Amino acid sequence: MIKDLKNICNSKVFEEVFANYVKDVKRFIFFKTKNISLTEDIVQDTFVKLWEECKDASYDTVKNFLFTIANNLFLNIVKHNKVIDKHQKGFVHENSNETPEFIFLENEFYEKLEKAIASLSEKQREVFLLSRIEKKKYKEIATELNISVKAVEKRMHAALANLRGKIDFI
Amino acid sequence: MEEKTTFNDTYLAKWIADEITDDQLNELVSDKDYSAYKKLKTGVHAFEYLEAPSNATLTSIKDKIAAKRPVEKTTKVRSLFAKSMIAVAASIALFFSINTFLKFNDVDINSNFGEIKTIALLDNSEVILNAKSNLSYNKKDWNNSRNIQLDGEAFFKVQKGSTFNVITDNGTVTVLGTQFNVNSQKNYFEVICYEGKVKVVHNANKYILTPNKSIRILHGNKKEETLNLTTKKPSWILGESNFRSVPLQIVINALEKQFGIKVNSKSVNTSDLFSGSFDNKNLDIALVSVFKTVNYNYQIKNNTIILSN
Does domain A2-87 have CATH number 1.20.1250.20? Predict the structure, then answer.
């Protein structure tokens, strides 16, 4: 039984591995590609590959395994894009119409932002997360927290002003 | 004036929600603040993506795996230890009696509570065994007759070749090469055909199933149905147990097998029909999705779920 709990070919173990590491893999690839749809493709293919090679993957080292697969998939795309670059000017991502919003976003800045979000006051963080992660409208948040829409907007405004104050922008 | 001052402490909220534009923000703050807020917005967008729940990603992964699955061949993996054990056991068996040897050729595979096992057979046919099910066959006879005994539920992907029989207490399922699901338990027998042709023999009656057809025998009563199958294999393989108007008792049996629990259903009517599904991973969610639907209360005591009206 203990062996089965660590067998990645078992779909439950696989889903547990997914839940544990998907964020890490996403982040790792996102700061390489700076592109959401490309990241999403690579992350999905990484876990598909893990499933296909589940017999060779060990539960204890699966994180490294995932990062290696993801990195290889990323490098393949870079190689492919270099070939495209020879024929086309500029860096073109395949299957992507995204504007290059994240090109100048560095990992260091993002880490500071994360820390700043974590250090917001409880009330501000609550509104911030409900709005940005749960994708709720200010009106819905107001109903949920039983406060006015104006109060929600004030908390959100204060949250953003606080984040701006907590991070030095150079 | 009042309007202006109140707007002063909410404009960032309106801007991040796209209720006011970047240009409007630029008029309200200094250039330095403006570029800082622009960068902050980019960071917030990245945060939204990286911190969002990954359910959709998991669904896409499952779809990709399901799409790839049919062409993929599972390779048999036998550990060296097992191989040497077979050699040792076989030589010992030869020393003793032919009977021991014949018995040794019986392969008996059990899946535990909540466990799914994939088994590659000698001819590369594949069986996926659902929780708490038993499968056995004779290795030696395999080339002459592909016979498998099943108690519980399993999905079969059979390579083309001689007749392949799945023998259960409820009846026998015969195929040549195809994909199908068999669920056999006390008073309940169900076969679903996903590909090819499947022959089901129950008592003296014979039924032929073509893709999307199913047969169900409940307490001896037969029901043939045409299903609208959207996937190439049953949902339990992907971690969800699905039911179409089956007595609650069958759902309870499945819960017990998936989670290794006991359900005490003395005070409720378990012959009521249930349609729906439950998640094989999380007991709490599974209990809610089954018993809230039929409006029964339940109490958890140790490993037993006690149902009441």
Answer: no
